[in-house]
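In keeping with the milestone schedule agreed at the kick-off meeting, the structural modelling team has produced records for the first pair of proteins. Each record is given below as a sequence line and a structure-token line. The laboratory manager (R.T.) confirmed that both were archived under the project's standard naming scheme.
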Amino acid sequence: MIEIGRVAHTRPHLLADTLEIAIAFGDYHTISMTDAVGIINGSPRVEAELLPLDVDDLDDNNYSDDLDGSEINAKEQARVEEAIRQIEYRIGVFGDAYPFALDAEVVSLKTDLTEKNKVYLLLLACSRSRSFKHRGAAQKLADCFEEVSAACLQRMISPYGRTFMFGPNSQDRKTTFAGGLSAALPTLTATMGMRLKKDWEKNFGNSGDAKIDLVGVYNFNDTAAGFKVSIAQCAAMEDENDWERKRQEAQLAHRSGSFDFLVEPDAVLFIPACYRQPDGSWINSDKVSNVITVDRVRIINILSHTEVTGLNVDHLYAQAGIQLAA
């Protein structure tokens, strides 16, 4: 089971996630608008959401005492309605891959879930890992998200290119890029058709991944510089302010003091969030600028090009230590 915890009730895409995760992994079989208001009311408030101290709030409901019950209820209902609009958008954009149904503003989980339904729910869990309280949950979900992202990057590169996972615990680091970072990074750089600049070691230690999660390479079966390269970062986070560092790290130009390249690689940011307005546009385009952002919508789209995803979904659930509610 999960702990819903803080609900971002003023952000419809995150409130929609909360309703979905409460059904798929929590105690709710269905969620009505009344249920959703109850979830919001039961949520702890972060400091930024609290009323100023000079505003009277004798009943401690985080609304000014100038508002009566009907006005408070109207505000809460409006927030839930925005979340319902998000769910309506998801029904349209994800199609059969969307695992929830909406009937008379009541949300429920479909029966007989398909592989793509389960991938959607895994992405949902990865975007809100704070709701899972078992030991190491956040890191386990992040590792699973990296595997899903690697499968997507491979399809973006083409069947004739190669995708590598460069994280220190990945299989590729044990084989293709064996040894500490001082040995692994020169091998990776050569694989990308690049070189490391003089004294590059001063910018890195001998451990970690040099802030590189995934690399996709199409080398044209050639030795001349200028390969088709994508450097990807995976941010298993729900809030765009938390993945800002990852967005910067995906852009190799920020480390031009260490890497010497003829062609700047594509910068790719994978996020499990459904970072969309109900019209399909980005919620904040500044937060996804200068990188190719692959969110939940694009991940499902990439994996839907074929009948099967190529992922061992049941293994990923076991690896993450999560299970769907009965």
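The second protein of the pair:
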Amino acid sequence: MKLNIVIAILLFFSLKTNYLIGQKNNQVKHTISIFSGYTYYTTYEPILSSVRQSSTFLTTGFEYSKKNKEKHQLSFKLILLPKTDLTSRLSNDGFRAPNKGEIFGGSFEFLYQKLLRKKGTYMYLGLHLNGVYLDKSLNVISFDDARAVDLFLDLGPSFSITKDLGKHQIKANLNLPFIGYVAAKTRNSETFPFDLIERDKNIGTALQYGDIALINDYFNLNFNAEYSFKITSRFLMGLQYGFQYYDYKKEAPFNVQAISYRFLLQAKYQF
């Protein structure tokens, strides 16, 4: 049932996107962006005897956006986080074990917003659908292939602001959750670390065993800011900064908090 709800939400966004792209309007602007840079990620899990984990990713990704300055804008963004080291630091001596593991994953974002204001500064308000997937090798205990999968989906309000200054453009976007789907329970707190759950070792099976969470159990703040410089009428170069903070109840009464921020160089082509 929960999986059917997630599929229905994804189908809605897909149909909405196809409908809007199919509309013809001579004021529509399409943009394709590619970007690369670094993402820093850190998380704190009290359930793991106060383990603090951190990683630095060499990040790549792309974004497609479609904007009608008189009505709306929509976009799809995909960010790839290739495999890298996962460093674990313990705040006590609960475990004496290696402090290196591995982590990889990625994220996506669907965005649809309606125009609120168009004089000088463009303001948009709408909905977002975000997804984050992280696969971790937890070498903080003496187990081979001790892994955890974290997968989050959330739907909620989104606000954007864009300012055009001749050849310069500044843009900011903020997403907040209304409802989330969390598939991150990779262990049983009563007997951990002796019964890592086999079913959570890949994205497909992890998705089936998730939980729907409202804002009191799950919070995800996602902020993005961009600066672009127009080199030609169609080609732009710029910088992108992203910040994300999420907090969720992994296994009561424990919460997991994580922060990530990224610095990216991006290139855009408009047509």
